[in-house]
Amino acid sequence: MSDSEIVRLPPRDGVPIEIKLRWGIQKDDLAALGVLHDAAFPVKYESEYYDWMLSESCLALLAFTTENCILSLLKAAEHRQYTETERDEENSFGVVENNASSSLYSVMVGCCIGQIAYGQRRDGRIEASPTGYLGSFAVDSRMQRCGVGGVLLDRFLSYMFFTVPVPPHLFLDYSPPYLGYEGLWGLISSAYPRLFDWISRWWFGKDRKDTNHAAEDTLKDEKPCDSVDSTVNSQIGRIQCGVGEVWLHCVAEDTKLLLYYMKRGFSPVLVAPNFYFFGGRYHEGALLVCRKDEALITSHERNSARATGKKLGDEAGQETFVATGLSNDFRLRDGNAVLPATMSEEDSSGADIVDLLLMTDLTGLRRKWRSSVGKLAFFSDLLAS
């Protein structure tokens, strides 16, 4: 299997369009990603966010096209503005001739960047089962309305719903099976979470040498893999394939973008006041979710995602630094709060999940999860097992 594919899109203004989709971000991509983000989003990302993009916990799908395609589209756009007489004189707006350099897919024109996250309920409880989060989704303005965004989003959702490996240790209520004395093991994991995570990675082969290159690996069906199930037992020691939901935030006042997401199967959950800060004032943020059983994804997209998907890196369960998101021009959320700092009770609309906690480190999240569900309930479940 390959970690990239060539997709042919419908022609626009007589210009044939092909893009190359590639999973994973390389260091050479960061400059182009910065330009793409700055052009697409009113908020600014700090350098830590781009550093995180090179980590194993980043799940990214990039789109590239050729310089020839960009030049042809620009020339066609100029031609549409001419008068009828000028169009007769300037009738060479078609495809620019190919040459050795223009045939390379060297121009980044889109991205879908996400990661594993955990939902936080209105009462402060944290969901033990991992979910998906789409952190940034952007398309170069020169390639918008060409189908690039649709292909990117469909591939990304397909991968998250049907393919992304979710090892047992990513479940916050996980304790390794078959070691005997499960109750004692749970007590150790509670008292010494760092030791617990290290032993878990060692036991399941997560801490071996030469495992830091997963970003370049292709998806291989080498291990037993269960499809996602809301009733899945996270203690069975099998790798689950796919998550049940993918969440995202966007500027609530951007109705055009909201309608785009809703047409793609996303549903609005709540509006959080004062979520973003840019342009000298606060802006509301909308939280949306796309559920696997409601996703508008064809079987072709599922197969394409499986064929090109990047597997979750071996370091995903480690205490890898993950940038929490936007800090400048962005109001960060505190996972310890009973309610997210950006949401009032009046705006909650009875939503079960009101915030998403990114996978900054599993040790901290497990500690928060145990605190959120209550120690008595945790130890009762532990002894009952």
Automatic annotation (TrEMBL):
One of its GO terms (cellular component) is Golgi membrane. The keyword Transferase applies. Its EC number is 2.3.1.259, 2.3.1.48. Belongs to the acetyltransferase family. NAA60 subfamily. This is N-alpha-acetyltransferase 60. One of its GO terms (molecular function) is histone acetyltransferase activity. It comes from Trypanosoma cruzi marinkellei. Pfam families: Acetyltransf_1.
